[in-house]
Amino acid sequence: xxxxxxxxxxxxxxxxxxxxxxxxxxxxxxxxxxxxxxxxxxxxxxxxxxxxxxxxxxxxxxxxxxxxxxxxxxxxxxxxxxxxxxxxxxxxxxxxxxxxxxxxxxxxxxxxxxxxxxxxxxxxxxxxxxxxxxxxxxxxxxxxxxxxxxxxxxxxxxxxxxxxxxxxxxxxxxxxxxxxxxxxxxxxxxxxxxxxxxxxxxxxxxxxxxxxxxxxxxxxxxxxxxxxxxxxxxxxxxxxxxxxxxxxxxxxxxxxxxxxxxxxxxxxxxxxxxxxxxxxxxxxxxxxxxxxxxxxxxxxxxxxxxxxxxxxxxxxxxxxxxxxxxxxxxxxxxxxxxxxxxxxxxxxxxxxxxxxxxxxxxxxxxxxxx
Length: 370
Fold this sequence. Notes:
Radius of gyration: 24 Å
CATH superfamily of the largest domain: SGNH hydrolase
Strand order of the largest sheet: 1-7-6-5-2-4-3
Number of strands: 9
CATH topology of the largest domain: Rossmann fold
Distance between the termini: 85 Å
Helix content: 25-40%
CATH class of the largest domain: Alpha Beta
Largest sheet: 7 strands, parallel
Structural class: alpha/beta
CATH architecture of the largest domain: 3-Layer(aba) Sandwich
Oligomer: single chain
């Protein structure tokens, strides 16, 4: 082969490699350890806005599920219109295709679930989908009761997931536990969920712990699974073996305005709320966020001598002039420095109407609060 032919061959080889790399789906961020999404992952205000935006710009998600699994996506849909959503509800828009700056999530992308119509064909449906949609870089599958099975069947699930990971190394596969059935800590379901958890931790997997999320209310103080909680959030409050109280409705009644109504198959809205918060936490982690909450602090406004304070400890800094109280002088200062606040302060700390931006409506909301 003469020099000219060698040069042409080399250029052809480089071009071929480059084309192959272009055709590969974009991979999620490298992962050095397990990502465990559980009830401690439901504090959406801990997820930085930059991490949410990065997830929306990099992830292409396909989700296969039936009724129980829909709690995640119906919760995500309700979140978009929730007035109390950090950074404003519009931040959490999603659709199939990711149009308009939304998260790209194809709901019901693959038919059935991890046990329907059987325990193996979901893996082939995954291959068919990925081969037809090479841009997808996250795959999610959920259970609908079938996790309450034998250890051998859970081993089969784990083996099939591992095989898919080896076939599609650029795709992140999300493992899941099964929803609660009321059988408690010693029940077979919890043993099988523990089997999945142990595997995920030992092998650096991404786990959406469906069961653990619905075992706790937002305060996180009581493990209701151990009190025989079921998927509807009913539990045994007095230890007599009979479920007599519902932790979700009790929390909802005690915290008006801190949750939103949404569809939640077989369960209560609060359960779907928690699943939606945890899902966004997970997406941010998959996209590269390290899981450490960013503590946002205000800075001194022009012409002032102190840092704004939060007199009522509600996470909003009403005392812009740092005189120790919220008064009309703060409203005046906000009006005069609104553009500066929008450009230099953490938006969430001065977004008094919760729409995700600094505008005149925030000045009105602060005035109303006085």
